[in-house]
Specification:
about 200 residues, mainly alpha, about 0% strand
Length: about 200
């Protein structure tokens, strides 16, 4: 079977990344300005701060590392603590920044072969560690975005009880017969091993 074309691979990578971005924005839909700014965990980050951090990750990995945009690279020192959003910055501006950076990243990904190496790399920041091509950078951002989408899921549930997608867990009851695949007890409904 022939390997997938670069176009098909790029489309698959973009689809996964876009799905995680939609999760980030979707779990925050309907929160007001105060809720977006409210820290709910002891570490003190807010949902809005996390989105600002993700916007800067998109800029860093795609505009700086992959495309080597001089303005984006020279502006890295101006970011400060990306997790903190000044009180005079509207929530909508932060969400729009994230959307704009995602759109620019998508254009860069679509225009660059998956096996192309970075145009710029911050050796002083990472030392010997390196991502070797666009494919690895996109996979890194899928992981980063998915991880933070999970953080936002927990924060949203603490704020008002809303959840994105939580499969119901089977109620605890008397132990069930064990199957060769393991215990069915505590598994999400519909995902029990056959024969349990």
């Amino acid at each position: 079977m022939p390997p997938p074309s670069a176009g098909a691979e790029t489309e698959a990578l973009l689809a996964c990344l876009k799905a995680q971005r939609e999760h980030v924005l979707g779990i925050l839909a309907g929160l007001d300005e105060d809720a977006l700014r409210r820290p709910v965990l002891p570490s003190g980050w807010s949902c809005l701060g996390l989105v600002r951090h993700l916007a800067h990750c998109e800029r860093f990995w795609f505009r700086c590392v992959i495309a080597g945009e001089p303005d984006a690279i020279s502006g890295l020192g101006d970011v400060g603590n990306a997790w903190r959003v000044a009180a005079d910055v509207p929530a909508g501006a932060v969400l729009d920044l994230y959307r704009r950076e995602a759109e620019r990243a998508d254009a860069i990904i679509a225009a660059t072969r998956p096996d192309a190496g970075p145009a710029w790399w911050p050796t002083d920041l990472f030392g010997d560690w390196r991502l070797d091509d666009v494919r690895e950078v996109v996979l890194h951002m899928i992981t980063e975005t998915a991880c933070h989408a999970g953080h936002l899921d927990a924060a949203r549930e603490l704020i008002d009880g809303r959840t994105w997608l939580v499969l119901p867990v089977q109620p605890t009851g008397p132990p069930r017969r064990r199957s060769p695949a393991g215990s069915a007890r505590g598994r999400p409904a519909g995902l029990r091993p056959a024969g349990s």
